[in-house]
Write a structure and sequence with these properties.
Layout (H helix, E strand, L loop, with lengths): L2 H8 L4 E5 L2 H8 L7 E5 L3 E5 L4 H7 L4 E4 L4 H9 L6 E4 L5 H10 L4 E4 L1 H9 L3 H28 L6 H14 L10 E4 L20 E6 L2 E2 L2 E2 L2 E7 L4 H20 L6 H14 L11 E3 L6 E5 L12 E4 L2 E4 L3 E4 L2 E6 L2 E4 L9 E2 L1
Parallel strand pairs: 1-5, 3-4, 5-6, 11-19
Antiparallel strand pairs: 1-2, 2-3, 7-8, 8-11, 9-10, 12-13, 14-17, 15-16, 17-18
Helix pairs in contact: 7-8, 9-10
Length: 356
């Protein structure tokens, strides 16, 4: 069953769906373009795109009819919907407010309703092909981590900055098969590691620093995501203690991850462990998020997510502790959710590495 057929199974006769977001178009059709719209009904699916992409679309897309986009998106969708007496149209949360407003104004005969739940439920459960794309993306990411450890080892005594490391890492990832970066690389050192989303700076990496790298690759559009914290030169006893605690939290949560568990319950495993050690206030974000074509999808491991995690979801497991003005530690793997457990798709070492 194609992803479009899975979508059609979730809607009723008389329902239509408009898919215009770049990532959603790619998700449903497997085709990347800067312009296009997909109109779907219970029994029909038509992808419209302009002259620049029409030939490639015809050669790539097998799950929808291909037509050239001769006028507006609204006119294209009406040409599909009017033949099937469509009354209700689902739209995407990712579509801009101005786009939705313009479409509603141009299509007054249709009731527009949010399709967030439909799209989220589809994207939550990855197909075997999607899992393979994410695995290949993560393999590039793992390779990048091994490379950057050697890069830092060979160069930190010469004086290298966080920006130097981030640039070297991105170059290596792209050279070794990654598409565009799914998000900006985070490279933080020393006191900057206390900021979960620190921006690489001109700070020189020094002995005694923790270095936190949060980065990913993409393969056929699908993202990977990994965080590792390593040390340069030496560590204090406090640094070692906090690192081991974060690692314990990460592994403890992973042991309990399986299909059917609630996202909030997995988050609580790490959060409760930190509370037992008196550092709960230093863990200020959720334990993990889903990913795919988007780097952040649903469901999540968070205190607010009370829903069950479905089989074949892919989520991150990334506890962290952050102490302002001192240092922080985060360790992140991505896992494939299965009936009786989970498979880590991340294979980089998680033991405390001290680069010397």
């Amino acid at each position: 069953m194609t992803i479009i057929e899975r979508l059609q199974a979730k809607i009723n006769v008389g329902d239509g769906v408009i898919i215009s977001d770049e990532y959603n178009r790619r998700y449903f059709t497997g085709f990347e373009s800067s312009n296009g719209v997909l109109a779907v009904t219970k029994t029909n699916a038509v992808f419209f795109t302009d002259f620049r992409y029409i030939e490639a679309a015809k050669n790539t897309i097998k799950s929808a009819e291909i037509r050239i986009l001769e006028a507006s998106h609204s006119a294209a969708c009406i040409s599909v919907f009017e033949k099937e007496e469509i009354k209700k149209v689902y739209f995407e949360a990712e579509a801009s407010y101005s786009y939705c407003t313009a479409m509603q104004k141009a299509m007054p005969a249709y009731e527009f309703v949010p399709g967030d739940d439909i799209f989220a439920s589809l994207r939550a459960q990855k197909t075997p092909e999607e899992i393979e794309y994410i695995k290949k993306s993560q393999a590039i990411t793992d390779k990048g981590y091994a490379h950057i450890l050697e890069f830092v080892k060979e160069n930190y005594k010469k004086g290298i900055s966080e920006k130097d490391v981030a640039l070297e890492l991105e170059f290596f990832l792209r050279k070794n098969g990654s598409g565009k970066m799914p998000f900006d690389i985070i490279c933080a050192s020393g006191e900057n590691t206390s900021r979960p989303h620190a921006v690489p700076s001109d700070k020189i990496i020094a002995e005694g620093d923790f270095v936190t790298l949060d980065f990913g690759s993409s393969y056929n559009g699908y993202a990977s995501d990994m965080t590792r914290t390593f040390a340069v030169g030496h560590v204090s006893e406090e640094q070692r203690k906090i690192y081991e605690l974060v690692l314990e939290a990460q592994l403890s949560a992973m042991k309990q991850i399986k299909a059917g568990v609630r996202g909030c319950d997995i988050d609580a495993i790490a959060r409760n462990l930190f509370a037992e050690h008196g550092v709960a206030e230093a863990f200020g974000h959720s334990l993990g998020h889903s990913l795919g074509l988007y780097i952040h999808e649903s469901p999540n491991f968070s205190p607010r997510y009370t829903g069950e995690i479905p089989e074949n979801a892919v989520l991150s497991d990334e506890p962290g502790l952050y102490f302002e003005g001192k240092f922080g530690v985060r360790i992140e793997d991505i896992v494939h959710i299965k009936k009786d457990g989970c498979e880590s798709l991340t294979h980089s070492p998680k033991n405390l590495i001290i680069v010397q």
